[in-house]
Write a structure and sequence with these properties.
This is Adenosine kinase. It is built from 13 helices and 14 strands. By secondary structure, it is of the alpha/beta class. Strand 7 and strand 8 form a beta hairpin.
Length: about 350
């Protein structure tokens, strides 16, 4: 049985603001369906307009926060998970706090005085969507918040600490603080190669955010020796291999080489988990690879791949913190991703049907 606060996530929180709009709205802001972009100045009024003029759904999103929410849902154990990130002092920040509390996660946010809460507009037309992300306060996390006694207590309580690769762009100092603590305290540190978001759908495997491997190589290499589990998709794995001069594009070989990356602590061996869309999940440990099939979904049942990769990690973590076997962790991840892609946004029914 997982205990209170056993899993802690640190990352970039974004409030998903999802609403059905019309073609006129898309044209007004110059956005296209089936596209995902970062907001420009011309897009900034969009978020208030969605909130004020449409029936909207709010979801506490961002890669790490999605995974932690899904893990909490799979566990169904009050207070099992915690989350740290940065929001603004505004109405969207209030929605974020309300949403994460409803999800059963202990959310402890640093509230920035100068930047608005990070948001992602999810504009839906005829079942298709356009995503426009405004990172804003998500980029403003300060290590001083992590060092506060009430927040560092969450680090000390957790046995598993999960951080998506995106956080390397915001607060590498915070990552190193918790990673060094985990290594010294016989805990588990888990990180993604890059984003993994949307890359695992059981059907398709779209390239997503390999830029972490390329532009933040130094910060990534500094953190990697402290990690016990590394997640990624096949595109990110190949980008990682290319950046490090490995003359292979074979996912299994890359997974083994990542698992054998030198460790700062010898307490735990490193396990690499690489998703490949509809192809089997690659798990490398002890210099060997195991392949695990995913749950395939008929295309007519696919609703939305948004957050599918996050859901896979969340489902995996829900079993890992219960010290289940690796095949059960992968099965949990595959189940969670399969549920999420049949719904709009990274959402789920009241209770999981997983055993």
């Amino acid at each position: 049985m997982a205990s209170e606060g056993i899993l802690l996530g640190m990352g970039n929180p974004l409030l998903d603001i999802s609403a059905v709009v019309d073609d006129e709205f898309l044209q007004k802001y110059g956005i296209k369906l089936n596209d995902a972009i970062l907001a420009e100045d011309k897009h900034l009024p969009m978020y208030d307009e969605l909130a004020n003029k449409h029936n909207v759904d709010y979801i506490a999103g961002g890669a790490t926060q999605n995974s932690v929410r899904v893990a909490q849902w799979m566990l169904q154990i009050p207070g099992a998970t915690s989350y740290i990130g940065c929001i603004g002092k505004d109405k969207f920040g209030d929605e974020m706090k309300k949403n994460i509390k409803k999800a059963g996660v202990n959310g402890q946010y640093y509230e920035d005085e100068t930047a608005p809460t990070g948001t992602c507009a999810v504009c839906v037309v005829g079942g298709e969507r356009s995503l426009v992300a405004n990172l804003s306060a998500a980029n403003c996390y300060k290590t001083e918040h992590l060092k506060r006694p009430e927040n560092w207590a969450l680090v000390e309580k957790a046995k598993y600490i999960y951080i998506a690769g995106f956080f390397l762009t915001v607060s590498p100092e915070s990552i190193m603080l918790v990673a060094e603590h985990a290594a010294a305290s016989n805990k588990f540190a888990l990180i993604t190669i890059s984003g993994l978001t949307d890359a695992f759908a059981g059907i398709l495997n779209e390239p997503f955010c390999p830029f972490i491997c390329e532009l933040f190589k130094d910060a990534q290499e500094k953190a990697l020796p402290y990690t016990d589990y590394v997640f990624g998709n096949e595109t990110e794995a190949r980008t990682f291999a290319k950046v490090h001069g490995w003359e292979t594009e074979n996912t299994e070989e890359i997974a083994i080489k990542i698992s054998q990356w030198p460790k700062a602590s010898g307490t735990h061996k490193r396990i690499t988990v690489i998703t490949q869309g509809a192809d089997p999940v690659v798990v490398a440990e002890d210099g060997k690879v195991k392949l695990f099939p995913v749950i395939l979904l008929p295309k007519e049942k696919l609703v939305d791949t948004n957050g599918a990769g996050d859901a896979f990690v969340g489902g995996f973590l829900s079993q890992l913190v219960q010290e289940k076997a690796i095949e059960d962790c992968v099965r949990g991840g595959s189940y969670a991703a399969n549920v999420i892609i049949q719904r709009s946004g990274c959402t789920y029914p009241e209770r999981p049907e997983f055993s």
